[in-house]
Amino acid sequence: MDHGILLASGNDIDFMIHGLFSYKLFGHEVWITTSHVCILIVMLVLMGFSFVVKHKMKNATEIPGKFQNVVELLVETLDGMVKGTMGKNAGKLVDYISTIFIFILMCNISGLFGLRPPTADYGTTLALGLITFFMIHIAQFKYQKPKQIWKDMCSPLPPWLPIWFPINLISEVAVPISLSLRLFANVLSGTVMMALVYGLLSKFAIIWPAALHVYFDLFSGAIQTYVFCMLTMTYVNQQMETETE
């Protein structure tokens, strides 16, 4: 397979990331890869969907049609998920969580449409993990006093000894790494497994692996999306709740 974006079928299966073209930026060579293009496709699809939703909801009827029902169900489900985890703090994060939930889910299931899932690229999941990391500590400094932050970093047991600080610091740094690696490894493993199945079955792979797609792309993709968003909400909400207690 040439350096393409789609996952081919049969013996030409390829699950690697390929560079499409490069350019110079401040004296450095920067590559545009298949992951960038797949992310762009996902973003364009979501933007197109959002414009259609905006247009339809402006003309929403009291008795909703099928499309309006689907949109309202999606919004209510995401709102309920965030509120169930964050409680009274849900309103502060519901828009962000809903956005990354839909984005990650679309990335995870994009393999169904012949794309290489962008979340099978560690650069994508690390960026998402770092966003969560910064949100955690922005909430921490916003809702907690410096004394409380220092006390937490020197816990878990009183007296609060500085000896705990490096251990807690490592655990804080590990948050974005664990978040990003969990999502990346699960999506990549599914991508590799499906590539091997298609490669082994060759022409017969068009029909047989449908059940595997349901698991690796739909079920596993949805589970990993939920886990990432749930952990993000839990980590951020812990920092918000400390201030109110």
Characterization of the model:
It is built from 7 helices and 2 strands, in the order ββααααααα. The mean pLDDT is 83. With 245 residues, the chain is mainly alpha-helical. Helix 3 runs antiparallel to helix 7 and helix 4 runs antiparallel to helix 6 (165-201). Strands 1-2 form a two-stranded antiparallel ribbon. Helices cover 69% and strands 5% of the residues.
List keywords for this structure.
245 residues; mainly alpha; two-stranded antiparallel sheet; 7 helices; globular
Describe the structure concisely.
The chain is mostly helical.
Characterize the largest beta sheet: strand count, sense, and whether it forms a barrel.
2 strands, antiparallel
Overall outline: globular
Going across the biggest sheet, name each strand in turn. 1-2
| Count of helix runs | 7
**What oligomerization state is this entry in?**
single chain
Structural class: mainly alpha
- H-E string: EEHHHHHHH
End-to-end span in angstroms? 58 Å
How much of the sequence is in beta strands?
5-15%
Point out poorly predicted stretches. Answer: none
Could you report the average pLDDT, rounded to the nearest whole number? 83
Rg (CA only): 21 Å
Helix content range of the residues, please? 55-70%
Number of strands: 2
